[in-house]
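Quick entry, no commentary yet.
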Amino acid sequence: MRGGAKIFFIPFFTSIFVSAAVCFLFFVYGIPFLERVEVPDVRTVTLDQGRLIMENRRLFLLVESETEDTSIPEGSIIDQSPLPGSLVKKGTHISVVVSKGKGGIAIPKLSSVPLEEARKILAEMGLKIGSITEESSDSITKGSVISTFPSPDTITREGTIIDLVISTGKGAVIVPNVLGRRLGQAKEILERAGLKVGHIDYVCDIEKLFDIILRQNPRPGKNVPKSTAVNLTINAEEEE
């Protein structure tokens, strides 16, 4: 009998011990796990909507800070912590950052924009035009904006004064004197001055040296825009 009782009690107490251990582990780890919920995404929703969404998950919404944001409307949530998808215990406080609405104004890029159009753009943004200065430019057409001060993308406030630099077109240069030069020399001189060779005429004047330039148009010393073509007349022998 004693042997049989021993055989009976060992498995009995072992099963009780195992059951107790399982219950303990479930109590320590299982119940808290079942009490965890997934954090919902409340970014871009209003603060009131965010609170309601959190309460439905038995979570609490806590406003951590407010900041200006040009893309998120005032009173809506910009960011949250913990992030959406995180598993947390019920009753956890979820911190959020709330938008204070549109902040500063970013100065627009106005390079190559005609002056009148630039005036309209700035006025619609609540910005004012200050001084307007002019500069020559090889790349910006006459009457268009070269640059602004403050520079583009600078964050400023409504009513800020913006100074503009407007293009007068390509800068003027003085036509060099290429009379008496050969064509190759003349071309090099003109190109160094920012000009180019235009139409070439040939005449024959036996009283002057051949293969030299007798006339040029525009004339030497005249102010002309860069890249202007200079027409040349060259003294050449008559073909027999």
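second:
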Amino acid sequence: MIEKAKKILSSADAILITAGAGMGVDSGLPDFRGTQGFWRAYPAIKDLGYRFEEMANPGWFKENPSLAWAFYGHRLNLYKKTKPHDGFYKLLEFAKEKKDGYFVFTSNVDGQFQKAGFSDDCICEVHGSIHYLQCVELCSRDILCAKNLEIKIDHANFKALEPLPKCPKCNALQRPNILMFGDWEWIEDRTNKQNQKLQHWLDNIKMKNSKLAILEFGAGTGVPTVRRFSESLIHTHSASLIRINPRDFEVPKNQISFQTGAKEAIDNLFNRMFTN
């Protein structure tokens, strides 16, 4: 099977990398899989009894801002200090060699692809990014960079300490520019622009009849956005899908899967590719 995958990747004119939370696990990031996985990452929230779906809710920024920013501030701090695993860099070097280039489609909000050197112009973050902020009160559609934001957290009581980020226009609280559960107030403008670039790239590939290979990493079935997008291109662009997932590894007919983690698969696949 790995020889078939190697052949597909070698002959591809363009590479689409699609990624869910499993992509960052080898960097030490939690994937929040299941209630127990979430509570292992956030034992303080286990004591409160909340599931990930309950915490990842925009209502907390109005009901309990210090709790909301304890959760998202901890994640922001974690993502800022985490170095992407070596697989990111191997992927980038390979993808840059393709004549029709690459694109990344990810549900991750951690910014790890940009940190590894992937071009911001070639990434679509379908659920937004924790590295950007918006006003809770929607006084404007401004989306501001959170590069210099530091959130200090009282870990014993799991609450963010003042000052919390405030909107420069109306002085209301800011929240991450992330699509949360039950979220009708997410400002999707930045993601929409990214998606337009992605669709333009895909249209060009289709027009030129280029061979498209999809490398999908760690995209589960709980929130199947990434999986569905990968599979849709099998039909619309005659793409070949290589799915890498230690648990949810099933694939449509005639596609390829590897039941392993992202870094291990990249190491095995690309070491073979470059040494044979």
